[in-house]
Design a protein that fits this description.
Structural class: alpha+beta
Shape: globular
Radius of gyration: 18 Å
Helix content: 40-55%
Order of helices and strands: HHEEEEEEEHHHEHHEEH
Number of strands: 10
Strand content: 15-25%
Strand order of the largest sheet: 2-6-4-5
Number of helices: 8
Largest sheet: 4 strands, antiparallel
């Protein structure tokens, strides 16, 4: 099912029933199953498909020859990997499963067929691509300027809001299966520093993270601690002028 993708795109524009049915086809593409820590795509490969995350968490990363790795983004259900990758001769990054992942492998032909017949879906995909770039800029700002506590607080706020936008939160809680080693690779910190910073955030009453469950008792307080402004996620149906006539 591609319900999470549809919910995410409807943060930008309200889709017609025909457009939703077209997007539902993406979730019925060939399914791929990946165990945790397995590569989904490897830098240097020639991309021939786009992966839609249906279940589980994945990441985009860059690695040095000695094995050091920097996670540059997380994928949650409803996210598509690199919509524009078909124009590349080779991938310039790798993608890996953080947890066990189920992904729909979407061919160029399937994507072309859907976008050719539904121009508003194309506009929604453009929004998805632009938001991805906006998130990347915000991560760069975090790595360059935010303190360790601010980086982690900001990351938790972003992921919680992204999960909430596709219906994957329960009140002030959500599943959060990211190990501390992956948090360290995303935040540019050592695992020891991450552990120490998480203790500080817990002691301040800003969050609880236990048994793969994140609870944020006061999202406003955590946003303040992370200097978080959600404007870069471009939610709130900014494409309402493109709404379908239902």
């Amino acid at each position: 099912m591609s319900v999470h993708l549809i919910r995410k795109l409807e943060q930008f524009v309200r889709l017609s029933q025909a457009e939703k049915r077209a997007l539902e086809r993406l979730g019925r593409a060939r399914l791929r199953h990946f165990p945790a820590r397995a590569d989904i795509a490897v830098e240097g490969e020639s991309p021939d498909a786009v992966n839609l995350i249906l279940d589980g968490w994945a990441c985009r990363y860059k690695a040095l020859e000695d094995g050091r790795r920097q996670i540059v983004s997380f994928f949650v259900p409803g996210d598509m990997s690199d919509l524009n990758s078909f124009i590349l001769r080779q991938l310039d990054h790798s993608q890996a499963a953080v947890t066990p992942v189920i992904a729909a492998e979407i061919s160029r032909d399937m994507l072309d067929e859907i976008t050719d017949g539904h121009p508003r879906v194309v506009q929604a995909f453009w929004w998805e691509t632009l938001v991805t770039a906006s998130i990347q800029r915000e991560w760069t700002l975090s790595l360059g300027q935010r303190t360790a506590a601010e980086r982690l607080a900001h990351l938790f706020c972003e992921l919680f809001i992204r999960l909430r936008s596709v219906g994957l939160t329960d009140g002030d809680s959500c599943d959060f299966p990211v190990p501390q080693t992956a948090l360290a690779e995303a935040a540019g910190l050592s695992p020891v520093h991450v552990n120490r910073t998480l203790m500080t955030l817990r002691e301040a009453g800003l969050l609880s993270l236990a048994r793969r469950q994140l609870t944020i008792p006061d999202l406003g307080a955590l946003m303040s601690a992370g200097l978080f402004n959600p404007n870069y996620l471009h939610l709130e149906q900014e494409g309402r002028h493109l709404d379908a006539n239902l």
